[in-house]
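Lecture notes, unit on protein representations.

Consider one protein chain, 183 amino acids long.
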Amino acid sequence: MESCSLLSFCQLSILPPKKVNNYRALPPLLKQRSSHSTTTLQCHKMYVPVCIYICWIGGFGEASPEAKAAKHLHDFFTYVAVRIVHSQLESYNEEAYAEMVEFLETHSLSDGGDNFVADLLRQSSTHKTLALRILEVRSAYCKNDFEWDNLKRLSIKMVEERNTKVMRDYVTETSTVNTETET
């Protein structure tokens, strides 16, 4: 968003305004007299109000959308690390591989990667070694191997494609052209 109006939608509140008796207590934008010319401010990022997180999107709590995405990526990195370690063990340590398979059958990765690794740490010395290896691989994958630029590119592409599809489907659905009556 390159520019936005003086009172953009993101600055409006959905809550009723508080009664203000002191003119000095008003925010600077409300102190200005209205004029016929529109003043624009340069905005570099969209402002996502905290109320949006809590009320409309289903309870982000106080976390930003980026923090929520980071948590999902963290869990995903744990999943990837488990897959990498699992694959490595299959080729060079059959005993540890068997223990890993047994542990995977009884413990789910879906309830959080940290819970999975914490449970693995508490099993036995072999399991502890596997857990430490998973932590090491998770960190290395996140820092060195994950393609962050590709994630951004693919995310933008996906949003654009899905927006186009939704709008195309809507236009097709609401179109007044009826091909059956023409034949």
